[in-house]
Design brief:
197 residues, alpha+beta, Alpha-Beta Plaits, 2 domains, 5-stranded antiparallel β-sheet, 4-stranded antiparallel β-sheet, 32% helix, elongated
């Protein structure tokens, strides 16, 4: 685990809600994609603030199971909870996510985007392919080809595969946009797609 639910000190009175995101992102990506913009939105609307977060690891090949964002509010009433859901969905949280009210354990499903995992084979290609190819080129080209239909949000390096995680409106459309490139770029030989949200 990467500092799972690391809390700030001296929390004020109030309540906590946990945004359990069906997103395979590492701590820095979690902060950039979700925590920082959500904290800014919540403070601007006087709804609360982000007070911590964590990333839950999973067995290979997934690497990451989900991530949590801890939110402090003065009161976890229906209006505030629904507003937080709306703010998170505006940031593109994946389908299968949920907001958990810590006080009573109630959960509100949320999420609008689908996820695509592109798993690159890290052991079975010729050494020359690994030496001459660049995973950053794969990420940049996939982002370019998906255009506004999806974007890269995280990765995982396992013992035999490197997973690249993209999120957007449609898994099928993201896959169709990048499939020709994936089938022709040397580093993507023996790669596989998986719908992750």
């Amino acid at each position: 685990m990467f500092g799972f639910l690391k809390k700030k000190q001296d929390q004020p009175a109030g309540e906590f809600v946990i945004a359990r995101l069906n997103a395979r992102v590492q701590p820095i990506d979690r902060g950039e994609c979700y925590e920082d913009p959500l904290d800014e939105l919540l403070k601007r609307l006087n709804l609360g603030e982000v007070t911590g977060g964590g990333t839950q690891l999973a067995d290979e090949p997934a690497g990451i199971e989900f991530c949590d964002v801890e939110i402090h509010v003065t009161e976890a009433n229906q209006e505030i909870v629904q507003s937080i859901v709306e703010q998170l969905e505006s940031l593109g949280v994946p389908k299968g996510s949920r907001l958990i009210v810590e006080r009573d354990g109630s959960e509100l499903p949320m999420g609008t985007q689908e996820g695509l995992g592109l798993f690159l084979n890290g052991t079975d290609l010729p050494d020359q392919v690994y030496a001459e190819s660049d995973v950053n080129h794969v990420i940049a080209e996939c982002d370019r080809l998906m255009a506004s239909g999806g974007n890269f949000r995280g990765y995982w390096e396992g013992s035999s595969e490197t997973a690249l995680y993209f999120y957007g409106e449609s898994f099928a459309e993201m896959k169709a946009a990048i499939a020709p490139f994936v089938s022709n770029y040397a580093l993507c030989q023996k790669a596989r797609f998986e719908q992750i949200a």
